[in-house]
């Protein structure tokens, strides 16, 4: 099994540690991972802004980069959801369709494909989990609080395998943080207010670290935490699952 | 900003957010209702099946709408109800006006109807010398405040009791500074009772119309629709053509879902059935299209017509809770309004499908399973293609596309961007950058993942 590692553009540029942790986690799980060097972006920022018709070149590039792999794995629920829902190709539609069926977000890949039952990780901190909407409601990484259905959470399952990690509970367990792609600048006021409220829920329950399976939400909350001069940090879930703290 | 509007959703939401304690209060009030909805829904083990059933009944009805409308018309007429058809808001208003004129009515009492808000009926009638008093308490309050409702179920949820006290002091003669809800409610009750007793015509909305029997059902918590309709000689019911359900046996499905989704109550206090006029009494029903058949023809957006106007999507919407209903500038605000309004006027409401993070919570609470967040995404594509996007945004998107579709340019601009952020941070960390206004920029790392990978792992270039 060879996995193509899909690292979203902003993770590549701003959060290489999340990408490195993703790579190392997959390698530790015995997966053969290849990072196609010519990748850029999945096209989500354009598509969610109403410019899906501009994403043709991004799509073709994505197909070129990833068609050959058995699976495609990425540390970002929203980018994966975009590829799953909207990847098309004029030249190779069959390959695009195949990619849509074999692209996975890291957490679901670890729980559903690799079926990891234990992790060699230690992270002795109070951690708050932000259930990013696209991962949760789009990919079904966890049960949604609105639905009358049995509870489950794939990220929580993995976090529970980390030694000495204390997962805090939140008052609003799956409210959106307000990032929303270009929404974060187009609707700056509401976006920031949502982010402040989301962060406050974590702070009230004494989180030391806020984690999640989508770095973009974490980037937004990090910006707010740093403006508030808070000591609370954000870390991608891959970094925690890969942590080996004393 | 667009023609006909002074400000778009983002700008109005920005205004609303100038008073943060008020935003907190608005958010918490609506979240409280979302939690009540959760308790009511989780008390029913087959809730999801109920939603699916409701969704299928509505889908079936919309697929055979003309047939059911004709059946409803025939049965309603047989029951002695006068049936009118209105192609648009204008025609609806004229029909209502002509009914009132024929009956010599210059004062009308009205119960809650979002359709009449959509048609701006009150303004129209007032311009024609007819006084309209809204009898739903929340609607009466916003009417006195000369504001439109900010929520379809809770029209004055944006007002605090102290503000309502001021409005009542000004219009209904309560003591200055009085904000005791009991006193205010009693004042409104006396005021409205006098209205009910003296009006010869009453208008209500319609929650459900049943094709099989030609009857319609009006749901209120205050009984004000009954008070108006029972005391007046003429009852006018305004109904969007999508309110139809095929059979009486389907009603139970919707009545179980409606109020649980809306307010967390097991059922509305009054679910009143109107089937035939009593002797000496007239019932008129106005069946209004106003863009609905156009929406029915838009395959991607057809399902929006399933809406039973419970408002659950507004209560759960993190954006609505923090921007307030008036920022939507549409009779129906929030997520559902954002997929209905562009159908009525795409240019005027081009901002609304973008007033969402596409978090998807709206679709999950919707009792008739409208895929609201997917429709918001699809509206964005339509609006941009029709040319209603901001030109600056279009330019930005084109530039972004150029960078992202070339691996070489992407790498170079990434490197340059990180270098700029580190070396001359004021170029990005300034007031022109909306990200930076209330958030710090990400700290640029010394190398990208791609650069790290090239150094630390075999390359496959």
From TrEMBL, chain A:
<dbReference type="GO" id="GO:0005829">
    <property type="term" value="C:cytosol"/>
</dbReference>
<feature type="domain" description="Cysteine-rich">
    <location>
        <begin position="3"/>
        <end position="83"/>
    </location>
</feature>
<dbReference type="GO" id="GO:0016491">
    <property type="term" value="F:oxidoreductase activity"/>
</dbReference>
<feature type="domain" description="Cysteine-rich">
    <location>
        <begin position="127"/>
        <end position="221"/>
    </location>
</feature>
<dbReference type="Pfam" id="PF02754">
    <property type="entry name" value="CCG"/>
</dbReference>
<dbReference type="InterPro" id="IPR004017">
    <property type="entry name" value="Cys_rich_dom"/>
</dbReference>
<protein>
    <submittedName>
        <fullName>Fe-S oxidoreductase</fullName>
    </submittedName>
</protein>
From TrEMBL, chain B:
<keyword id="KW-0004">4Fe-4S</keyword>
<keyword id="KW-0249">Electron transport</keyword>
<dbReference type="Pfam" id="PF11870">
    <property type="entry name" value="LutB_C"/>
</dbReference>
<dbReference type="Pfam" id="PF13183">
    <property type="entry name" value="Fer4_8"/>
</dbReference>
<keyword id="KW-0677">Repeat</keyword>
<dbReference type="InterPro" id="IPR024569">
    <property type="entry name" value="LutB_C"/>
</dbReference>
<dbReference type="InterPro" id="IPR004452">
    <property type="entry name" value="LutB/LldF"/>
</dbReference>
<dbReference type="InterPro" id="IPR037171">
    <property type="entry name" value="NagB/RpiA_transferase-like"/>
</dbReference>
<keyword id="KW-0813">Transport</keyword>
<dbReference type="InterPro" id="IPR003741">
    <property type="entry name" value="LUD_dom"/>
</dbReference>
<keyword id="KW-0411">Iron-sulfur</keyword>
<dbReference type="InterPro" id="IPR009051">
    <property type="entry name" value="Helical_ferredxn"/>
</dbReference>
<feature type="compositionally biased region" description="Basic and acidic residues">
    <location>
        <begin position="448"/>
        <end position="461"/>
    </location>
</feature>
<keyword id="KW-0408">Iron</keyword>
<dbReference type="GO" id="GO:0046872">
    <property type="term" value="F:metal ion binding"/>
</dbReference>
<feature type="domain" description="4Fe-4S ferredoxin-type">
    <location>
        <begin position="297"/>
        <end position="327"/>
    </location>
</feature>
<dbReference type="InterPro" id="IPR017896">
    <property type="entry name" value="4Fe4S_Fe-S-bd"/>
</dbReference>
<dbReference type="InterPro" id="IPR024185">
    <property type="entry name" value="FTHF_cligase-like_sf"/>
</dbReference>
<protein>
    <submittedName>
        <fullName>4Fe-4S ferredoxin</fullName>
    </submittedName>
</protein>
<keyword id="KW-0479">Metal-binding</keyword>
<dbReference type="GO" id="GO:0051539">
    <property type="term" value="F:4 iron, 4 sulfur cluster binding"/>
</dbReference>
<dbReference type="GO" id="GO:0006089">
    <property type="term" value="P:lactate metabolic process"/>
</dbReference>
